[in-house]
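Budget justification aside, the reviewers requested a transparent look at the raw inputs and outputs of the sequence design task funded under Objective 1. We therefore reproduce one unedited record. The lines immediately below are the structure tokens for a 755-residue chain.
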């Protein structure tokens, strides 16, 4: 026990508590008549400052050591502002549980915790609480790139140490962190005698909700996040209805569960979002829904091949289970809880990571104008039929790449993605035997990688490598060295990876522990070679970008590509107004905005269900440090609106969600790093809407030269998506403007500081 070495200055008694106030390093001691001793240590120390990091750390630690004769049952921790309170308790049988309240009102009812194992007793009861410690932490850290530069990370922590009273007497720690914007908790299995490793068959974490909330959700699919979001009451939630989508051959939705982030609104108007942070060497968590009790229970993604969900050697910790809590929907978007619950940057110098806009030999394949494979016989445009009919035109040629580079250079766009450049594309979608097929270093004969790289360098455009694995990760892992050496040789600092199809080997799923580890291995390998990763068909974002800032972006949702070939009519107009409050809470999204030819002439049965002005707004609303201008160069021709894509920033000093409601609309303002220019974007669902923007966020005393890109008088996503107008304006702090958004529409504003 801590040795106390201080002079007692005074003594205060309140109920069962006695406080000895003292001088010295350990200031005070609290005595409770039932417990032995509670020393309160406090220390405040400015830790360090550096060029990029300003950190002020102050911590107060309260340790509660419980005596063997007493058996305390509960303990609490509150957020720094006191509004969120987490209570941990053991019930009479020693089963652990927690509950959460906001402003004195319960938001999570008492909910149980625990694990089921293979070859061991389940761990869910018969515990005693050995020790509880409270501490406080505060720092400011800097994002190398992000929605904002400086992030505040202030929380109060409670750690409880539990031990089983009988049997194997196993130990378990639970750490709770209470922030002003939500909570996180994780389990820690410490080193202990008699248990070396654990095979987890499931985690038994409950989230018992206080009512029949409105939920915004996608199914708890073990393989794919590319579902439409649904808005239902919890009592009406049925994810199993989405098992068979004609364009999703790899859905696997074993039970009525949802994937995270899942966002909810209570009848009192409070917003909650459930997710996880720091998913490391563990299985992704889906949440099983009890539609009668309004309860969620963790349902980890499993491995049918291995017959379990997670295998770990001790000691280890689980990912954080997170709940973001906000009185406004926009507060969820502005919350940095998920990144805060991750470890600091492990990659020292990340100056090789370049936030940028990029173009690509990409949309033309999704439209069916060209193909990935050399013979021109494969096309994603007929995805539903297995992608077997093509245009006869191979997209990734040296000549075509140069054409895109010229377009990018002329418009200040810094990146070029080329898909379909390498051998293997004649044997991907629709084939089961995809192991050993893709070659990540050998070009098709009509593509000269070196020539394209050099041409790009001359014009100031860098190449984004493309590695589609066709969900055969072992084939990719075998070639990681050669694939990344190739990138290093050519000075390529970004790669887009892809995992289309069912995972090989059979019985593994995209979101299981085996794949979580694969994705991390690729990220680490990429970092060693100074390559940033944009993963498609990825594992969910859980804030790992803080630790590995080369995790720049990912897909993990129904992206723009669906509009080109979906057999269900594409993304409905409300799609992105839900995505902003769900998927986007987890991290950057490679949505690939910027379609100007919205009727999709080559695809008579498809169209984009937004107006052109909304496509512009997406550069601000949907956050990613790499943003595609995805349309064909020829479709941008003659469009003054291209100026917005040229101007808009990709890296932000700060971001502010101005207004919004999931499924209806959202408006966000962001200040560009380095320039002080501001950009505002707003989008609406299928309903026409007026929105008033107060420009109070602008700095005092600057008149910004603004260009407003908005829906034209006849704009409508279905009948006239291309109708837009551009209006110049002068805007300063204190001004306000009202914008009309057409059905499926939006607006985008650039606010340039000028001289
Ligand atoms: C699916 C990705 O989401 C898409 O962007 C890519 O073009 C294809 N896979 C081919 O890799
Ligand atoms: Ca995809």
């Amino acid at each position: 026990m801590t040795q106390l070495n201080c002079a007692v200055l005074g003594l205060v008694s309140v109920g069962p508590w006695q406080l000895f106030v003292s001088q010295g390093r350990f200031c005070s001691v609290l005595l409770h008549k039932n417990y032995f001793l509670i020393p309160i240590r406090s220390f405040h120390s400015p830790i360090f400052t550096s060029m990029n990091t300003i950190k002020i750390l102050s911590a107060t630690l309260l340790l509660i050591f419980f005596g063997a004769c007493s058996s305390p049952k509960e303990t609490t921790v509150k957020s720094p502002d006191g509004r969120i309170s987490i209570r941990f308790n053991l019930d009479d049988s020693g089963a652990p549980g927690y509950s959460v309240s906001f402003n004195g009102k319960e938001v999570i009812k008492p909910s149980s915790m625990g694990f089921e194992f293979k070859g061991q007793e389940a761990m869910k009861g018969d515990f005693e609480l050995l020790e509880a410690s409270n501490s406080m932490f505060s720092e400011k850290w800097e994002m190398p790139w992000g929605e904002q530069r400086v992030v505040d990370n202030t929380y109060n922590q409670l750690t409880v140490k539990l031990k089983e009273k009988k049997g194997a007497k196993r130990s378990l720690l639970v750490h709770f962190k209470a922030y002003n914007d939500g909570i996180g908790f994780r389990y820690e299995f410490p080193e202990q005698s008699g248990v070396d490793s654990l095979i987890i068959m499931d985690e038994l974490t409950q989230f018992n909700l206080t009512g029949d909330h409105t939920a915004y959700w996608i199914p708890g699919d073990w393989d794919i996040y590319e579902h439409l979001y649904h808005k239902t009451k919890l009592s009406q939630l049925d994810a199993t209805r989405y098992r068979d989508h004609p364009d999703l051959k790899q859905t696997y939705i074993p039970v009525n569960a949802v994937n995270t982030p899942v966002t909810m609104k209570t009848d009192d108007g409070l917003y909650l979002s459930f997710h996880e942070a720091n998913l490391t060497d563990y299985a992704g968590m889906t949440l099983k829904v009890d539609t009668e009790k309004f309860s969620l229970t963790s349902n980890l993604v499993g491995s049918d091949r291995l017959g379990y969900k997670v295998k770990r050697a001790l000691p280890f910790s689980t990912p954080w289970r997170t709940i973001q809590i906000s009185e406004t929907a926009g507060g969820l978007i502005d919350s940095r809880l998920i990144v805060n619950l991750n470890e600091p940057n492990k990659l020292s110098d990340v100056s090789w990571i370049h936030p940028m806009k990029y173009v690509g030999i990409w949309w033309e394949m999704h439209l069916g104008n060209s193909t990935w494979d050399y013979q021109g016989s494969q096309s994603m445009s007929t995805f539903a039929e297995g992608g077997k009919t093509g245009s006869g035109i191979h997209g990734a040629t040296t000549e075509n790449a140069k054409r895109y580079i010229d377009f990018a250079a002329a418009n200040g766009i810094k990146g070029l993605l080329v898909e379909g450049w390498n051998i293997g594309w004649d044997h991907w979608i629709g084939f089961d035997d995809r192991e050993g097929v893709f070659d990540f270093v050998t070009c098709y004969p009509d593509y000269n990688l070196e020539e394209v790289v050099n041409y790009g360098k001359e014009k100031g455009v860098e190449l984004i490598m493309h590695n589609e694995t066709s969900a055969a990760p072992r084939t990719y892992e075998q070639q990681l060295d050669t694939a990344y050496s190739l990138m290093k040789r050519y000075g390529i600092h970004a790669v887009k990876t892809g995992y289309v199809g069912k995972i090989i080997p059979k019985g593994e799923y995209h979101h299981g522990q085996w794949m979580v580890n694969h994705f991390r291995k690729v990220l680490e390998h990429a970092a060693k070679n100074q390559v940033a990763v944009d993963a498609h068909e990825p594992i969910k974002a859980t804030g790992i970008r803080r630790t590995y800032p080369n995790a720049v972006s990912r897909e993990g949702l129904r992206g723009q590509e669906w509009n080109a070939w979906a057999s269900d009519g594409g993304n409905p107009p409300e799609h992105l107004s839900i995505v902003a409050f769900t998927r986007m809470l987890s991290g950057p999204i490679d949505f690939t905005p910027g379609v100007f030819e919205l009727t999709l002439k080559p695809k008579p049965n498809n169209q984009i269900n937004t107006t052109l002005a909304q496509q512009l707004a997406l550069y601000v609303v949907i956050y990613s440090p790499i943003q595609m201008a995805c349309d064909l160069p020829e479709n941008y021709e003659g469009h003054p609106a291209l100026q917005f894509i040229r101007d808009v920033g990709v890296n932000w000093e700060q971001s502010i969600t101005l207004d919004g409601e999931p499924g209806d609309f959202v408006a966000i303002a962001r200040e560009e790093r380095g320039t002080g220019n501001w950009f505002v974007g707003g989008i609406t669902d299928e309903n026409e809407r007026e929105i008033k923007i107060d420009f109070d966020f602008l700095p005092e005393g600057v008149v910004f030269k603004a260009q407003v890109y908005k829906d034209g008088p006849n704009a409508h996503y279905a009948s006239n998506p291309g109708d837009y107008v551009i209006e110049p304006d002068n805007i300063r702090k204190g001004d306000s403007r009202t914008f009309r958004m057409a059905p499926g529409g939006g607006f985008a504003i650039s606010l340039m500081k000028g001289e």
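The mean pLDDT is 91. The two ends are 63 Å apart (CA to CA). Computational costs for records of this kind are itemized in the attached budget.
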